[in-house]
Write a structure and sequence with these properties.
about 375 residues, alpha/beta, Aspartate Aminotransferase, domain 1, Aspartate Aminotransferase, domain 2, globular
């Protein structure tokens, strides 16, 4: 199959592949082009063949939450009480609800930019005050400006930190030392932490994910953990995630939003996520090997000297945060590459002011397609 036929074969009903014309290769929104785990396909097929698509029962939700809890114990050595878990449609919705129920209009919310755009939208759209704690770029990594974080946390009416861990878009996987310091600062200034850990399974050795709720038993009561199987197992369209609260008091406040407004989760989505977390790790291991090879291919591409393009290889996620500021695409990399290369990346400014001159590339695709993406970028920058 030619690369053109390979690309055409990917045309699906997903937003990723339907947004742009057919001659454009999409590498923007965080979906994978690598299929789904057979155990998920089997689970969904059996539900359909049995005509089992009725309203979800409490037992299905309980098994789903138990699967999440068991996974955090087995994979991250972090016990999280299933009784404090809650099924949710997606992490973004849960962030909006958390901000609405746990802070007041005019309160300050800290985010570490560049950051996943809905973090910024959730603060602005709910009438809270955005307090940016930009990551600092060193030679080979991204670091949290802890002194600035302390200053922001100490400001009047700063009540919440939105922590993206692993970090999107830089791919940074934070260390125990960093997370402990964040916890100490937030504890000192009574700042609640909402930890979006949706990319927790997509981490490359020697890095490893540390759940923020594991930092200390005392501080865990001040943490809300949000995650999902959607990124790791490529099932974003099923709209299924989980919110775990560090205390019954936090859960009660969150549930002040009526359950009918929060929405309910479908049986197929919870069964698919449960199958992924309990039986899908062999598929995930194989997929991670492909993602790592793709990440390394981008590293080699940049190191060969691609007309001023720079980036730091991500420690986690399948997202490459590319620095075009010293290239001919500096003014607007996303628009330049869409026009000149027929490749669609995510615009850097969407991730905050530090994203000007940058763009995010999703490399969760077949190596052949990634190769074509990189060749197109190279020709456009030449």
């Amino acid at each position: 199959m030619s690369i053109e036929d390979e690309i055409r074969s990917k045309r699906t009903t997903s937003t990723k592949w339907m947004k742009y014309p057919q001659d454009v290769i999409p590498a923007w929104i965080a979906d994978m082009d690598l299929g789904i785990a057979p155990v998920i396909a089997q689970e969904l097929t059996e539900r359909i063949e049995n005509g089992d698509l009725g309203y979800p029962c409490a037992e299905v939700e309980a098994r789903f939450i138990d699967a999440f809890s068991d996974r955090y114990i087995e994979r991250f050595n972090t016990p999280l009480d299933p009784a404090l878990g809650l099924a949710s449609t997606d992490v973004v919705q849960s962030i909006f609800i958390a901000i609405t129920t746990l802070t007041d209009p005019g309160d300050g919310v800290i985010v570490q930019t560049p950051i996943y755009p809905p973090f910024l939208q959730s603060v602005n759209d709910t009438g809270r005050i955005l307090r940016e704690n930009p990551l600092v770029r060193s030679d080979d990594t991204w670091e949290i400006n802890l002194e600035e974080l302390e200053l922001l946390a100490s400001e009047a009416r700063t009540t919440l930190l939105l922590l993206c861990s692993p970090h999107n878009p830089t791919g940074r996987v934070f260390t125990q030392t960093e997370l402990v310091k964040i916890a100490e600062i937030c504890d000192k200034h009574n700042v609640l932490v909402v930890a979006d850990e949706i990319h927790c399974d997509i981490v490359y050795e020697p890095s490893y994910h540390i759940p923020f709720a594991s930092i200390s038993p005392e501080f865990a009561a001040n943490v809300i953990t949000m995650t999902s199987a959607t990124k790791s197992f490529n099932i974003a369209g099923l709209r299924c995630s989980i919110v775990h609260f560090g205390s019954a008091e936090l859960k009660s406040r969150y549930e002040a939003v009526d359950s009918h407004l929060r929405g309910s989760i479908s049986t197929p989505s919870m069964l698919a996520a449960t199958a992924a977390w309990t039986k899908g790790d062999s598929w995930l291991k194989s997929t991670l090997a492909t993602l790592k090879a793709n990440r390394d291919a981008i590293t080699s591409f940049v190191e060969q000297g691609c007309f001023g393009l720079r980036y730091i290889p991500p420690q986690g996620t399948y997202l490459a945060w590319l620095d075009f500021r010293d290239t001919k695409a500096a003014e607007s990399p996303q628009e330049f590459l869409l026009d000149k290369a027929r490749v669609a990346l995510s615009p850097g400014p969407d991730f905050g002011t530090p994203g000007v001159g940058w763009a995010r590339l999703n490399f969760a695709t077949k190596p052949e397609i990634l190769g074509e993406i990189l060749n197109r970028i190279k020709r456009a920058l030449a």
